[in-house]
Amino acid sequence: MRSLRHQMSLLLLGSLVILAAGLISVFGWYMNHRIITETSVKAQSDLTICRELIDLKYPGSWTVRDGELYKGTVKISLNSDMVDHIAQLTGDAVTLFSGDTRTATTIRSTNGERAIGTKASMNVIDAVLKNGQMYVGDANVIGQPYQTAYLPLRADNGMIIGMLYVGIPHASEQEALEKSLIRITEIGLAWTILLSFLAWLLLRKFISPSWQEIVKGTQEPATENFALGKHSGVEEIEKLEDAFIQMAEQIQTLTGEINRSAMTNSENIQSKGNFNTIIEQFKGGETISESFPDETASFRTDPLYGLDTPWGSGENGLPKGLNKATLNQIVHYLEANHRPISTEEVAEGVKLTRVTVRRYLEFLEQQGVLKSEQKCGTVGRPVKIFIPL
């Protein structure tokens, strides 16, 4: 029992863990997709803000003078204060390009210095400088992946002379994703532990005792008499069933006797008075043999073959609840199968309940017609076998 309970607990715990892992995986994929989408939207929005801030603070057109980038009269090349201020406001990396070359940037190379003079990626150059389009998407920036947004810078004549860039490193995205996953994992783990504990309590309180009763019942010797305290409900149902069956059998026997009497004495039952007389005799407790002594002899049941029961010996007394027709049916079956036999087999053979058959077999055993022995059944439980004498 302990092993079974542990196996059920492990199965339940494993199911909860698999469910939690699946939910975390789906949530992780969803969060990663959301973060990429949101950073892309943020990059576009921040790019627009940067352009408006530069236009507001430095009025005038974009120009290139002596290889240097200007906005109006202000020199933009090497203007670290401007890009640092914009980066502080947006939280992004900010760069201004003169052509395809970085001329002012917050991005630093591996040696810690600003990446002035480095080139943009070829896919960015083709999209922005050559085709004049805004570029939004992943880009390699000084060997690091970024979620980027590029905007072409045009002179008054419409010529593209540079680019404005904002970017969010993928490392920041991964950090945000990891924090979200850690948080959801902690919540999921807490819920898994809580649900596992509640399931364990449920298993221990309700399911485990039921299994213990089943196992205990299969291990205890199976006798025909159960303890009233443990099986009172079952015995009451069985007694009720037995009583209904006996009542049905008695009604069936009575009906058969009436039908046979009616068939052999049709002249006597044509009148309503004669029929009422028969009914009154049954109500008054009289037997058919008293009213029709000749006819009842014609359908009287044959004596029990070789079984010296009180009925077979001519005695009329039977214990309360037993009737001759059912007893005769069971005795005939025993004669036809003259061998050691169980209650279940007799019940199956005569199409009656096991409880009913058991009472008749025990009656025959009390009269010395049968004897009983306990034998081991197919599942290790003793079975009561009745042996004709």
TrEMBL record:
InterPro entries: 2C-system_Tx_regulators, DeoR_HTH, sCache_3, Sensor-like_sf, WH-like_DNA-bd_sf, WH_DNA-bd_sf. Residues 76-178 form the Single cache domain. Residues 328-371 form the HTH deoR-type domain. One of its GO terms (cellular component) is plasma membrane. GO terms for molecular function: DNA-binding transcription factor activity; phosphorelay response regulator activity. Pfam families: HTH_DeoR, sCache_3_3. It is found in: Cell membrane. It is a multi-pass membrane protein. Keywords: Cell membrane, Membrane, Transcription, Transcription regulation, Transmembrane, Transmembrane helix. This is Response regulator of citrate/malate metabolism. It comes from Desulfosporosinus acidiphilus (strain DSM 22704 / JCM 16185 / SJ4).
